[in-house]
Structure formats: C-alpha cells, structure tokens
Write a structure and sequence with these properties.
Strand content: 15-25%
CATH class: Alpha Beta
Helix content: 40-55%
Structural class: alpha+beta
CATH architecture: 2-Layer Sandwich
CATH topology: Beta Polymerase, domain 2
Distance between the termini: 60 Å
Bound molecules: guanosine-5'-triphosphate, adenosine-5'-triphosphate
Order of helices and strands: HEHHEHEEEHHH
Number of helices: 7
Number of strands: 5
Largest sheet: 5 strands, mixed
Length: 213
C-alpha cells in the first residue's frame, strides 16, 4: 500500500477519533475526582494527531516504510496527562493498567532513568479500539504522563530543538541540563509539602461549594 497525500485524512480518521475519545475519558476521570472532593491526579489533558509532515520526517529518519507506520510509529496518536505531583503519575499509571478498554503494550520510565537531554516523563503505549463505519479498528496511542514541572521543561526544550533544528548549542544544552535539575528539585520540594497543598485545595473546593449553595 502506497499512501498518497489524498489518503491521509482517511488514514488518520481513527487516530483523530482515538485522541478525542481518550481526552473525553480522561477529562471525565478528572471531573469524577473533583466531584468526590478527592485530590485529582490529573491537572490537565492534551492530545494531538501527529502532523503529516512530522510523520513523514520520522518515517524517513527511522527508516519505517509508509505501509508499516500504523504498527511501527507509536505516536501518531498522542495524549499527554499532566499532574501536580510525582506520585500522581503512579496513580495514573495504575489506573491505565487496570482499564479493560486500554491494552498496554509498552511502558518507558524516563523518570527513574531520565534521558540524556534531561527529559523526564512516564510513557505508555496502548492499543485502543475505535468503531468506524468500516468496523472496529485498533490503533496505537502514546500516553505521556508527567508533572507540570516536567511539562514546562519539555515544552521549552521542544521549542529550542525546533529553533535549532535538533542541534542545540552546547551552552544552551548545559543550561537545559541545569533547568532539568531545577525542575527535578521543584518536584521533590512540592512532593514534600503536598499535604499542605492538598489541604488548601480542599478548602478552596469547600468554599466554592458553600458559595454556590
Ligand atoms: N522535549 C522533549 N521531548 C522528548 C524527549 N525525548 C522524548 N520526548 C518526547 O517523547 C516522545 C517519544 O520519545 P521516545 O520514547 O524516546 O520514543 P522514540 O520513538 O524512541 O523517539 P522519538 O524519535 O524522539 O519519538 C517524543 O516524540 C517526544 O514527544 C526530549 O529529550 N525532549
Ligand atoms: N503524546 C503526546 N501527547 C500530546 N502531545 C504530544 C505528544 N507527543 C508530542 N506532542 C506534541 O505534539 C506537537 C507536535 O509533535 P511532533 O510529533 O511533531 O513532535 P515530537 O513528538 O517531538 O516528534 P518526534 O517523535 O517525531 O521526534 C508538539 O507540540 C509535541 O509536544
């Protein structure tokens, strides 16, 4: 099968559907936590379908024939779950593992073992089924689970990589390494005072409830 550009919309339809469904499901979990006045391990959720130019660039870089990208490119559909605290990540990972509608096919822990760049996140690749007019279709989705500090660092580093076409100057790389260490320290410190932060959140929720009654 040779994919031509006019086929991309059709090819990507199940991926678009998967990302939309997963965003609804994960945001639904967040709502449920909020309604139960429990601390929510999900601060926010984003998702995207990989742009066609990025799919083509990655296929070429990784030598993936276009007729195999559905099986070999794991991040055509991507969802990111951002949390407040590092241990929220464990809660989310357990939650995802326990679901019957997600089949976890791979996990990569870049928190225990950060990447050379300084990148930290927990990655899960799941197989997810969507129902299309041509029947059920299973697609791979990459879930990135990270704290707000990890997300801040990764977003800035991603922009700089884009700016320098992947060749970030050494001096900036070193600054990024130091910033990654600072983000790690921020996560550590916040974890130590999370009880206090959670109490404050409960007070805010209760006050909101009282003023709406
Ligand atoms: N900002 C940033 N993001 C990263 C970094 N490493 C990985 N990521 C993100 O995580 C995704 C998956 O990375 P990996 O788990 O390394 O997967 P991979 O297929 O081996 O590598 P990629 O070719 O980078 O996708 C990437 O597409 C990025 O979105 C990094 O050093 N910086
Ligand atoms: N799993 C994901 N969930 C949500 N957003 C993502 C995910 N992966 C990447 N993104 C975001 O999507 C945008 C476009 O990403 P793109 O796929 O081109 O980059 P990348 O993942 O860094 O690339 P590559 O894997 O090809 O090196 C970026 O803003 C990136 O941060």
């Amino acid at each position: 099968m040779v994919l031509v550009i006019s086929n991309w919309d059709t090819f990507l339809t199940p991926y678009v559907q998967a990302v939309e469904e997963l965003k609804v499901k994960l945001k639904g979990l967040r709502e449920q936590y909020q309604l139960s006045s429990k601390h929510t391990p999900i601060e926010f959720v984003t998702g995207r379908v990989k742009p066609v130019t990025s799919i083509l660039e990655k296929a070429q870089r990784k030598n993936i024939p276009l007729d195999r990208i559905g099986r070999e490119m794991q991040d055509i559909a991507g969802v990111r779950i951002v949390c407040q605290f590092v241990n929220d990540i464990d809660t989310i990972v357990e939650l995802i593992r326990s679901r019957s509608d997600f089949k976890v096919v791979e996990e990569r822990d870049y928190i225990k073992r950060k990447k050379e760049s300084g990148y930290r996140s927990y990655h899960m690749v799941i197989e997810y089924s969507v129902h299309t007019i041509d029947g059920e279709k299973s697609v791979l989705v990459e879930l990135q689970v990270r704290t707000m500090a990890m997300n801040f660092w990764a977003t800035i580093e991603h922009s700089l990589n884009y700016k320098y076409s992947g060749e970030i100057p050494d001096e900036i790389k070193e600054r990024l390494q130091r910033a990654a260490e600072a983000a790690f320290q921020l996560d550590e410190e916040m974890s130590k005072i999370k009880g206090e932060v959670r109490d404050a959140q409960q007070i805010i929720i209760k006050n909101r409830e009282n003023s709406s009654n």
